[in-house]
Amino acid sequence: MNRSTSFSLVAIAAALIAGPALADTSAKTRDQVQAELAQAVRTGNIVAIGEDNMTLNQQFPGLYPQQTADAGKSREQVLAELSTAVRNGDVIQGTSNKFNQMFPDLYPKQVAKAGKTREQVLAELTDAVRTGDIVAAGEDRMTLNEQFPGLYAQQVAAHTNTAARKDGAVNFN
Fold first, then answer.
1. How far apart are CA 162 and CA 79, in angstroms?
2. Is 67 helix (H, G, I), strand (E, B) or coil?
3. Residues near 162 by beta carbon (within 8 Å), at least 6 away in sequence
4. Which of 49, 73, 139, 154 is the most exposed place for a label (fewest CB within 10 A)?
5. What helix, strand, coil percent values describe the chain, rounded to 5?
6. How far is CA 132 from the centre of its chain?
7. DSSP of 92-159
8. Pfam family of this protein, just one (predicted)?
């Protein structure tokens, strides 16, 4: 057994041993995770030891079955997309600028997509503030309702027990 194969076996063994210790708290069962690991070992989709971050099937393609490529776009589809991009000036020149940005008079005007009105955005903001669905300050990127669930759960429950009438009055259930 050569050295790289023995390292690979050690990596697989370490993954099998450390798997339960590093288990994800998602909804997958232990059997599902073990089946996924067995599939990864069988197909070589495990990162090999080394600095190149290649999987075992990339380093040793002869030892693993060939993976089938996903069906991509046809040649005609790609050529149609290319001709549309050239016609509209959506081709990048250099590193960052598109032709329709550099020479806007030579290409058709880009139609802006209809966005939300100011009132819609303000309504969404008000709802997000009320429900605490705003990212709190800090590096953990948690929302306020995740940090303070008791505070916002009461407000959401109170809001669901009310119903607004067409004349603007609020009825409490």
1. 56
2. coil
3. 170, 171, 172, 173
4. 139
5. 50, 10, 40
6. 23
7. EETTTEEHHHH-GGGSPPPPPPP---HHHHHHHHHHHHHHT-SBPSSSS--BHHHH-HHHHHHHHHHH
8. DUF4148
122-151 exposure pattern, b = at least 16 Cβ within 10 A, e = fewer = eeeeeeeeebbeeeeeeeeeeebbeeeeee
Model pLDDT for residues 101-149, shown as the tens digit of each residue: 888 888 888 777 788 899 999 999 999 988 888 888 877 788 888 888 8
Look at residue 24 and give its three-state secondary structure. Answer: coil
CA angle 112, 115, 119 (to 5 degrees): 145
**Closest by CA position to 146, among listed 133, 157, 159:** 133
**pTM (two decimals):** 0.30
Return left, alpha or beta for 53; rule: phi > 0 is left, psi -120 to 50 is alpha, else beta: left
* Sequence spans of domains, the chain: 3-63, 75-106, 118-165
